[in-house]
Amino acid sequence: MRAGRCDRAQSRATSMRCRWAGIAILPTTLAPAVAFDDKGFCVAAQQLAIAADKDIGIWIDRVTRNAGMVVACDQKKITFTRFTYSAPAAMTDQWRAAKVSEWNAAECNSLLWKEAIDNGWTIVLDIAAADGSRATFNAQCK
Q1: Which CATH class is domain 12-138?
Q2: β-pairing, 64-72 with 77-84?
Q3: Are 98 and 91 in contact (CB under 8 A)?
């Protein structure tokens, strides 16, 4: 396999990078002068969810796995789910503040997600811990 090529003969990590590279290109194909199209965005988000399903189980960091993405067009809501092996005691207020900051930065620095948020969509990060506890964050752009 040549470097930088996205095809079927690749590792899961390379496959994930290729899919997300394709996603990164999506905002450049949208015409910014055109009004936001909820239906079109919904279709695109559903396609992203199909791609994200292939990434379920991939480790995001040393203690966090990807657990999928759900698109609820009728609610204008997209939820990214992750599973953490961090001890519940580690999910402190300081940890939550750091996650809020990271999530807002990631979503608001993306033209695609920021435009959706600005048009009434809710982009959620739901983190589930091994003991069943959860932390949920809604991206907010300032």
Answers
A1: alpha beta
A2: antiparallel
A3: no
Q: What is the pLDDT of residue 128?
A: 93
Among 139, 130, 138, residue whose Cα is nearest residue 65: 130
| Residue (of 139, 77, 137) closest to 108 by Cα position | 139
- Taking the domains of the chain in order of start, what are their residue ranges? 12-138
Backbone angles phi, psi at 118, to 5 degrees: -65, -20
Residues 104 and 141: their CA atoms lie apart, in Å, by 6
How is residue 126 annotated by DSSP?
E
The answer to whether 88 and 133 have CB atoms below 8 angstroms apart is yes
Sheet holding 122-129, edge to edge: 59-61, 64-72, 77-84, 122-129, 134-138
Interatomic CA distance for residues 96 and 99, integer angstroms: 5
Q: What is the pLDDT of residue 35?
A: 86
Q: Low-confidence residues of the chain, pLDDT below 70?
A: 1-33
